[in-house]
Write a structure and sequence with these properties.
The protein is α+β, with helices and mostly antiparallel strands. The protein has ten helices and 19 strands. The protein has a six-stranded mixed sheet. It has a three-stranded antiparallel sheet with strand order 7-10-11.
Length: 363
């Protein structure tokens, strides 16, 4: 990961926003910028300096991670157990505007900043997150490895017959398989939703048993090297009911239409509209109750958002999910989700899993 380039890009963003300095408080942004993974850190970034402030728990870890990221000579480390914000003003310069990550500061911290820092505070929104939306080659490779690990895990788990077993059993087996293959953990709580439970897009797996002839929504992902994967497949064990097959065909067509629109320069609402128009035309519009996708990287949900009101334009190097679905009470849900990399002329799909209702099951 080229953290030196990232520091340069962040400083260019400061200049573009007429900010002499920025106080970073969001842990994922700090990790992206300088490679530090501890749970307590702030960074003050100016045109001339960068200072990471943490506590004594990370006195050894912080310099080591900065060294590994190749920025030890560009970032100073200050270790302190002093509470509050005194001392930060001296890092940014007195009587000069200091940008703050408004979405990452609590109301209480904002009040303390106002009281203790003799500088003008300027709220910023998504300044570093916008830089993170375009992935470099190292990030793309890391995401692809996470996707491959997760895909292989589901493929292995579905070699077994899960009919009559609880949603939670399949969930735990899949989570364990991903960790056995080297994942640091799940990128979000795994969803296994059988039959009517699948009509809830964010259903929690429970003690319901997996029945034959009913759709089972499996939404899962892992974290590997800090980067997330995310995929959804809908599975039917046994004979596929005609109504489920028809709904699945609509979702598959909608997903393909959205993937085809995921091209650099396309506005995100247009990608959403490509999927939504297919589902609307089939008469299921009221049963597609969420956006078509989202960005993914160090966070499982990042900009850009692929939704009906999103005016962001896709850029080369954006990594997004494409995941339309139809949810029918008393029947269940069907969702198909892939991760794609946006390019100048089209999208490259990273998810390798077949999309059919029975394609992942043993013959």
């Amino acid at each position: 990961m080229d953290h030196r380039r990232r520091l340069k890009a962040a400083r260019e963003a400061l200049a573009a926003n007429d900010l002499p300095g920025l106080l970073l408080a969001h842990g994922v942004n700090i990790r992206w910028l300088v490679g530090f993974t501890g749970s307590n850190a702030r960074i003050v970034l100016t045109e001339a300096s960068a200072t990471l402030v943490t506590d004594a728990r990370y006195a050894i870890q912080a310099p080591a991670e900065l060294e590994a990221a190749g920025v030890a000579d560009l970032v100073d480390v200050v270790v302190t157990d002093e509470r509050g914000w005194k001392g930060f003003a001296g890092l940014a310069g007195r009587d000069t505007p200091l940008g703050v990550e408004a979405s990452s500061l609590s109301w209480a911290d904002a009040k303390l900043l106002e009281e203790e820092l003799p500088v003008a505070l300027v709220p910023t929104f998504g300044l570093v997150e916008e830089l993170r939306t375009v992935k470099d080659a190292d990030e793309l490779a890391a995401i692809e490895r996470a996707v491959e690990l997760a895909d292989a895990s589901l493929t292995e788990i579905l070699r077994k017959d899960w009919v009559g077993r609880e949603e939670l059993e399949l969930t735990k087996a899949l989570d364990w398989e991903m960790r056995e293959r080297g994942a640091a953990g799940e990128s979000f709580p795994t969803i296994v939703a059988a039959g009517p439970n699948g009509a809830r897009p964010h259903a929690r797996p429970g003690n319901a048993k997996i029945p034959p002839g009913a759709p089972v929504v499996i939404d899962f992902g892992c974290v590997l090297e800090g980067y997330c994967s995310d995929a959804t497949r809908t599975i039917v064990w046994g004979d596929v009911p005609e109504d489920v097959a028809e709904i699945h065909a609509v979702v598959a067509e909608a997903q393909a239409a959205a993937r085809a629109r995921a091209v650099a320069g396309t506005q995100c609402w247009e990608v959403d509209a490509a999927a939504r128009s297919v589902i609307d035309a089939a008469g299921w519009g009221d049963h597609f109750v969420h956006g078509t996708g989202h960005g993914i990287g160090l966070d499982v949900h990042e900009p850009p958002r692929i939704g009906a009101t999103s005016e962001a334009a896709l850029r080369p190097g954006n990594v997004v999910t494409i995941e339309p679905g139809i949810y029918v009470p008393d029947l269940g849900g069907v969702r198909i989700e892939d991760i794609v990399v946006v390019g100048e002329t089209g999208a490259r799909t990273l998810t390798s899993l077949p999309r059919g209702l029975t394609d992942l099951l043993p013959a």
